Amino acid sequence: MNIRHLTDDELDELLLGADAPAGVSEHLASCVVCRRRRDTFLAAVGEARGADADAATRARVRQRALAAWGAAAPRHWVRWLGAAAALVVLGLLPLLRSELAPQPKINADRVLVEVDKILARDPLDEFAARDVVEAVVPAGQEGAERSTS
Amino acid sequence: MASVARRERPLGREDERELVDLARQGDSAAAEALLERHELLLFRTCRHLLPAGEDVEAAVQETMLRALKNLGRFSGEASFGGWLMAIAVNYCRDRLRRHRLVPFLSLEVRDEDEASPLAVLPSPEPNPERVAMARQAMRCLRREVARLPRRQHEVFALRFFVGLELGGIADALAVDVGTVKTHLHRAVKRVRRAVEEARP
Q: Would you call A139 helix, strand, or coil by DSSP?
């Protein structure tokens, strides 16, 4: 039996979970003193660790987190619905534009006044009026008509 | 994947990635399966890294919610568990900063400590003297752990109270395994010495 006890460094290496140096495990298996040093430390760690949260507590906390997430995160179908709505809006956009474009307002009275002015200024107006009269009443009959009337 | 409610075999990394993908699409069953897998470690982490008097359940819930909301940021390079633990550690650090508290653990013995069975005692029949010695050692350990520098405290708690392997601690703290070993070695040396000195 190896009577040399583990050094502090060897014991620490063992405790922190690294691969044990050669011979350490064999020594530990046969040495009560070194085993007690290790077990004293591990017992104190176990005491300080305490008990784990029970299953009911864990489930309650998990469900709360999931509920909060569900309330905050958009569902899968909501994203699809949003995309479909966007496509519809894009398709209708040209139509909406033409409908919504401002139409010019027409003031009928003002237009008639303008037309009258144009007609009044028209140099052909005089000839047009005479032609119309002659077409209705020929030039030779103008006096006869007057005498008969 | 047809169902995520119950699995006969333990989840592998690929299964977990699949669950993450489903949860990203809003699958609450997948999200629940992910949380259920890691919640025990989350509880332990928050319990031992939060300052005394902090609400552990609220911390775990907030950690879970942050993880679910940020699933899109999970790259998949590290394990999901490591990513989740990193969120928990950051949350606990935030709480510490807000409270401006340096020590992590309460020094007084809690009721649950008095009531807990001495499961890891080497003797199968603990006599009163052994029980008293174990309690004394535990108090010493708590006191010394509370005095550790922040990083040493984190690695010690994650290794011995949460039960993570060195690689898991490295993921949770976003450092390499060598750094974890260095801090853990210093912490173990200091705490073990204090525990041994407490023995009569």
A: coil
pTM for the model: 0.67
At position B30, the amino acid (one-letter code) is A
| Residue in B26, B35, B121 closest to A76 by CB | B26
Give which of B48, B49, B18, B58 is closest to B34, Cα–Cα: B18
Block residue for tokens 């040399």: A4
Other Cβ atoms within 10 Å of A65 Cβ, number: 23
Q: Encode pLDDT of B41-94 as tens digits.
A: 999 999 999 988 889 999 999 999 999 999 999 988 788 999 999 999 999 999
State the ipTM, two decimals. 0.77
* Residues within 8 A of A (CB atoms), B 45-84 only: 47-48, 56-57, 60-61, 64-65, 68-69
Token pair recorded at residue A115: 């037309």
Q: What does the pLDDT average to over B108-135?
A: 54
**B41 contacts in A (CB within 8 Å)?**
none
State how far the Cα of A92 lies from the Cα of A96, in Å rounded to an integer: 6
